[in-house]
Write a structure and sequence with these properties.
heterodimer, A: about 400 residues, 6-stranded mixed β-barrel, 13 helices, elongated, B: about 230 residues, alpha/beta, Rossmann fold, 4-stranded antiparallel beta sheet, 7 helices, about 35% helix, about 30% strand, binds adenosine-5'-triphosphate, binds magnesium ion
Chain lengths: ~400, ~230
């Protein structure tokens, strides 16, 4: 018997039992829906975070210091690192959350004390005004560059350059406005006030520099730079445990690992619902086989071979699971577009996720359909014909 | 050509054996019209099912057209059924969800005939049984006699060498019964082998040979003389 013919027969028999076919498919529909939504959301989030990390620049090293003692190095010590061939720039950062006030408006934002190089090293771009310059740092000026969100809360949508804002009671002049960064997942960088590091150290009454951004000369010299940085901080702090150096590559591979684990975990949880759907198919196929025992007997009496009966029931099972898979996929795509607009995510259904979901539902159909189909095919024609 | 030697079939009802066939030996030529008669429960259907490869004997040798099929597996028997045998049952045994046309088409589909070749054959078979205008009817839209004619068309559409009919007129009024018998006899006259089980003396009288079965053995065989 030809395959197309078997397919036609399977569709006919499923159509004659519409409601039951639909209920049987429901398990698969929900399973595929869950798999596609979960995997696509995780993938969407991963690619977004990856993009943000990449936008930091591939040459970046981030040093976090967690020393129990007062640190010895100064901004000047750190800048000496720049003389290394492999290192292009060093940007120490001190930061703290602080209350802000401008006119009648108040808010809380992260106050970051930086040097003039910080803007270039972090790839910051301005939508108005200028960034801090060396003179701001040496003169401990009271100039500030602010994030777009902070600007809006404090000054509304109008121009804010030249306005005054108060950081814990001290007046600062706004000299620059940062370009809005799109919904950042690694901490909002829009609610921020950037001031000279020297001014910040005085404001915070601390000489500590807990975080340093370092950019390597080229992507190839990142490793060499890392060795130099490691040596410097080991000498300064005396213990490997007092600092960590993160490179973009390390962060990305960590992220990859975490998100990979998450995809597998969520995928398999959702996969279980597919298995449950498969058991539903097996159950209904078994019912169907015993209901149609006489039909099977008649078919065999008029010339159906074992393989014909086997393919007929197997195809029915696969058609059930694949149709369920397709419906689930369609609903999943719909759900994802809703989620994307609602939560401003970029979770799209990729071809590989769709193929995975459909492939898996086909496999579920074959695996759970083969026992009932085989049972039907093995019926002895005479027993099947006598069955009432 | 059917050759049977010492065919036995025993059913067990608990510990009690029911000897449905108790040593049947039989030879039927390629072109014979044989009526199988006998009391109810004597083993007629059991014999026909074995001849038609729906069932297998417990003991004995069965050769069909020279091939020993006593030891054939269910798979091989399926091929023999599809190629050589056309079955007609007392209860019609049509598939209720399919139209008359689709019911008759089914054996050809299982033979692997391409769709283009099937149409002519199915139409021809249905016209042959006088149902050219009922092709799209489902069995529940047909009378008993019409249903049995669809079943007859289904049996003859593959042009089998042997037609087996187990009480084909048993569920029909006498008018429909006569029509079905006329059809079957015309098939015999065209060269088919025809074996039928009947309780009707008139029908049995028309056959060229009568096998009388009692308690699982052939008690008398009017065609005994023709055996080689
Ligand atoms: N599946 C079975 N299980 C147990 N006993 C069976 C089975 N099939 C047939 N028999 C027994 O075998 C014997 C022969 O049955 P069979 O159907 O061949 O009779 P029959 O001659 O066709 O009768 P009828 O004229 O009533 O159709 C009967 O005694 C019946 O009870
Ligand atoms: Mg009988």
């Amino acid at each position: 018997m030809k395959f197309s013919q078997a397919l036609k027969m399977a569709f006919m028999s499923l159509k004659s039992n519409r409601m039951r076919s639909f209920l049987t498919m429901l398990g698969i529909i929900i399973g595929v829906l869950a798999v596609t939504m979960l995997i696509s959301t995780v993938q969407g989030a991963t690619s977004e975070v990856t993009e943000q990390i990449q936008s930091l620049g591939s040459n970046l090293l981030i040093v976090n210091v967690m020393s129990p003692k007062e640190t010895y190095y100064t901004v000047e010590d750190l800048e000496a690192l720049e003389s290394r061939d492999s290192i292009a720039g060093v940007a120490p950062v001190v930061s703290r959350s602080a209350s802000l006030k401008a006119g009648a408006n108040t808010t809380t934002a992260s106050v970051e004390g930086v040097t003039a190089k910080y803007g270039r090293i972090r790839n910051l771009s301005l939508s108005a005004g200028r960034f801090l310059c060396d003179i701001d740092v040496t003169a401990r000026s009271a100039n500030a560059v602010i994030g777009s969100e902070t600007a809006e809360t404090l000054f509304g949508t109008g121009d804010c350059i030249g306005n005054t804002l108060y950081i814990e009671g001290r007046a600062f002049t706004v000299v620059g406005l940062l370009t809005e960064t799109k919904n950042s997942m690694i901490g909002s960088s829009d609610n921020v006030v950037i001031i000279p590091i020297t001014t910040a150290q005085r404001l915070m009454q601390s000489k500590e520099i807990p975080m340093i951004y370092i950019s390597a000369e080229t992507a190839d010299s990142v490793e060499e730079a890392q060795v130099a940085v490691d040596r410097f901080f080991l000498r300064e702090l005396g213990d490997e445990d007092y600092f960590t150096i993160l490179s973009q590559a390390a962060v990305l591979s960590l992220l990859d690992e975490v998100m990979g684990t998450m995809t597998i975990l969520l995928g398999s949880i959702a996969g279980i619902s597919l298995l449950v759907g498969g058991i539903g198919i097996m159950n209904i196929m078994l019912v169907s086989v015993s209901e149609r025992t006489r039909e099977i007997g008649i078919r065999k009496a008029i010339g159906a071979q074992r393989a014909d009966i086997l393919t007929q029931f197997l195809i029915e099972a696969v058609v059930l699971s694949l149709t369920g898979g397709l419906i689930g996929l369609a609903l999943g795509a719909l759900g994802l577009s809703l989620i994307s607009t609602a939560f401003d995510l970029t979770a799209r259904l990729t071809v590989s996720t769709a193929a995975l979901a459909l492939g898996f539902s086909a496999v579920v159909g074959i695996v759970f359909g083969s026992y009932p189909a085989n049972k039907a095919a093995r019926l002895r024609p005479i027993d099947a014909l006598r069955y009432e | 050509m059917i050759e049977m030697l010492g065919i036995r079939k025993t059913y067990w009802m608990g510990d009690n054996p029911v000897h449905a066939l108790n040593g049947v030996s039989l030879t039927v030529g390629d072109h014979e019209f044989v009526a199988i008669v006998g009391p109810s429960g004597s083993g007629k259907s059991t014999l026909m099912n074995i001849i038609g490869c729906l069932d297998t004997a417990d003991e004995g040798v069965y050769r069909l057209d020279g091939q020993d099929i006593s030891d054939y597996s269910e798979r091989d028997l399926g091929v023999v059924r599809s190629r050589k045998i056309g079955f007609i049952f007392q209860q019609f045994n049509l598939l209720m969800k399919l139209t008359a046309y689709e019911n008759v088409e089914l054996p050809l589909i299982y033979q692997g005939l391409p769709a283009g070749d099937r149409k002519g054959r199915v139409t021809e078979a249905l016209e042959r049984v006088g149902l050219g205008d009922r092709m799209d009817h489902r069995p529940n839209q047909l009378s008993g006699g019409q249903q049995q004619r669809v079943a007859t068309a289904r049996a003859l559409v593959t042009r089998p060498s042997l037609i087996l009919a187990d009480e084909p007129t048993g569920n029909l009024d006498s008018q429909s019964g006569t029509e079905i018998m006329a059809l079957l006899e015309s098939l015999y006259l065209e060269g088919n082998g025809l074996l039928l089980i009947t309780h009707d003396r008139d029908i049995a009288a028309r056959a060229g040979r009568r096998l009388h079965i009692v308690d699982g053995v052939i008690e008398s065989d009017s065609g005994e003389g023709e055996r080689v």
